[in-house]
Design a protein that fits this description.
Order of helices and strands: HHHHHEEEEEHHEEHH
Radius of gyration: 20 Å
Number of strands: 7
Largest sheet: 7 strands, mixed
Structural class: alpha/beta
Shape: elongated
Distance between the termini: 36 Å
Amino acid sequence: MLVYPSSIDLSTRALRFLAGQLTARCRDIGTRWRRLPVARQALLALAHLRCGDTYARLAAGFGIGIGIATVYRYIREAIEVLPALTPTLAGAMATIRTKVFVILDGTLLPIDRIAADTPYYSGTHKRHGMNVQVLTVPFGRLQWASPALPGSTHDLTAARQHGIIDALTAAGRKCWADKAYQGACRPVRVPFRGRHLKQWKRCHNTTHAKIRCLGEQAMATLKGWRLLRKLRCSTNRITAIVQAVLVLHHASA
């Protein structure tokens, strides 16, 4: 097997942050020795999340030999220490109240499932996945991501289930969203639907799209973590992975 050096397009702040969290965990559980030091373990976890490298490739690249199970434990431990640091919806709303507006959008994280897994099949995207709702503040900064729901869940249903609509109403901030959120309460502004619209409605939709495109930047930031482009793990772990990515994104910003 050939091994070659590579790079990860992340700042060293993310590595130092994750290594600090792992050091604190080792101190709490009383770990005295590990095959890899915490800095290398943090780098291994970042390579998996950011680049989507498999356990076998990481085991060979980091010199663990055939210890694929060791790689799995290291990555799972790194992911488990981060969700506790994820900002809650209430905490995100405290920041959103200081902004002029917020953008709400949903995305489908593709998963590896068969056709029989109906709850995870999205009729809109024609594929299996998990629905994640994202809040973006001006300038396209990813602020908050919701827990993952089965892909068959409609965006508006997911937003209501997570309490996003009620939180936006209480915050009193303008929210821009796409047509999937048609029927939400007053703070959520959506474009007009239909093919033959009047001139002023078409102008409104154009302006609406220019503002909402900032939310697409946040989605691109989220999908920049290549593991999220095709998840092959248990659906019970996807929420923790999304939360870990969100924390690392904020730590490296």
